[in-house]
Amino acid sequence: MKPIRLLLVDDDPLVRAGLSFMLGGADDIEIVGEAGDGSEVAALVGRTRPDVVLMDIRMPTVDGLTATEALRERPDAPEVIVLTTFHADEQVLRALRAGAAGFVLKDTAPAEIVAAVRSVAAGEPVLSPTVTQQLISQVTGGGPQLDRRRRALTRLDALGEREREVAVAVGRGASNADIAAELYLSVATVKAHVSRVLTKLDLNNRVQIALLVHDAGLLDGS
Fold it and tell me: Which residues are CB-contacts of 190 (< 8 A; sequence separation ≥ 6)?
């Protein structure tokens, strides 16, 4: 099995050294490059072709949010995990909307960071929709603004009835198995519906589905 190619981006050399030591010790992870600012990311990604980028949010010239937005527009975009010191941060939320697969705190246990890299490389976000909803509430102080709700509802109109039901269930944090049981479907059928939802809505992962469903006001408490 090929190792997971990982790019580290943080403006603190000591943080980068610690992450490199910690993550480089995993047999299935290869550190292919390091950057000290978001301005260096595009060129490094082009040269090293990472599978995952571990991206600091706050950097002096080009921040992690801007770098993430630029990366996710590439046709061959790597997955991005945001590295931050705060649970509730508007920049983290914007990075998730831009397509980041999740975030980890800088004081997260080493084993959990390694697990996060592995999960994202396998196509699984490292942030549950439930945590996403909590983040939205903490940052915005409540439900989405009216214009955002209208835009979200308009986008969701592209879905069929069953796809919409699956999307709402994803937004509640339900697993594929939970959704299958709730809607009397097979897990394989649920996976197919999730894939179609992602394609129709031009989204990258389940976190973005949860954000859109929340914005549309379709979750309890939205």
Answer: 166, 176, 179, 180, 183
